[in-house]
């Protein structure tokens, strides 16, 4: 805790960002407020209007001292970035990746679990076996930002995109993944790789995994190429438990994982800094969703689940569990769901149902 102020226990920085980011964070904050009221956890919220509109005014996605400001907080809750008028790499690198890299949030956790009541594109027998945690390397790899463009705008324009795998970077993420796998009942960790075709960086990635594995003799390991892993997630979900994957591979596999549970709108994620003095950041895995922005039909569950991951990380297990319970209750009772889950409900309808369900849980203050 970074303060002695008795009026609140945690300072939370809220960055709704762009597109449906604002809509799902709004919905999430309404539900969160009621939950925290019941559990008597006091937070102070500071909303930062950073993102594409800020860029239009100032030419940057966040102020130059933005990272410094974030260091005053216990956690960050993030919506999404992306704008049809601004190039994606500018919005992403100017805000989300900037925060992850500068705060060295090198662990990205992406859990996906079957939710009874939510219709998966898989048949029910397969879908109910989904219970994965993807551990994503979040600081280097394919998203290192290294590379450049030469001969710009000439016929021989050439771009390089350099994937970087440092021993230190690989060791620390594998170590985290092994600890996590060790804490689960399956005690199984799958290494996702592509070292058959990418013979340099991915070899360092693999080698580090095998070295770290020696410290965790109780964890069963296996190695799967990323393309085969995508197929396995669909055909035999029970064969996977905790997966450790590079920045790009985990990005792709986690969208697949979330869609297999039922919708991209369900996925929640935590960008963890393991330094206690630096805040971690929690966000839904989806983006700004230009096709549905402003329609009040965005599914807020990914954002809400992310707020529960945040509370868990802060040590507020009771509040986090109430949110997970609410998500399960809502699904079990058949929503009503937003269109991405096959329903007709609006984002505001979902909020209303959650607030009603919270009363049904009958939690004593
Ligand atoms: P997207 O995640 O925004 O949308 C993909 C599809 O999923 C769309 O059809 C969208 O309507 C649907 N979808 C996503 N979230 C939903 C929700 N909560 N409820 C209902 N439907 C939902 O990905 P995209 O279309 O590839 O990217 C759009 C923009 O978002 C781009 O600018 C991209 O760079 C950015 N982006 C940002 C992040 C982030 O901020 N973390 C992540 C992914 C994409
Ligand atoms: Mn993604």
Describe the structure in your own words.
- The protein is an alpha/beta fold and 365 residues long.
- It has 2 domains: 1-105 and 270-365, Isopropylmalate Dehydrogenase (3-Layer(aba) Sandwich), CATH 3.40.718; 120-261, Isopropylmalate Dehydrogenase.
- Helices cover 41% and strands 21% of the residues.
- The chain is built from 12 helices and 12 strands.
- The strands form 2 sheets. A 10-stranded mixed sheet has the order 2-1-3-12-11-4-5-10-8-9, with helices on both faces.
- Strand 6 and strand 7 form a beta hairpin.
- The two termini are 23 Å apart.
- The structure holds nicotinamide-adenine-dinucleotide (NAD) and manganese (II) ion.
- Nicotinamide-adenine-dinucleotide (NAD) binds next to helix 1 and helix 4.
Shape: globular
CATH class annotation of the largest domain: Alpha Beta
For CATH, the homologous superfamily of the largest domain is named as: Isopropylmalate Dehydrogenase
Question: What is the residue-mean pLDDT, rounded to a whole number?
Answer: 96
Give the key terms.
41% helix, alpha/beta, binds manganese (II) ion, 12 helices, Isopropylmalate Dehydrogenase, globular, binds nicotinamide-adenine-dinucleotide
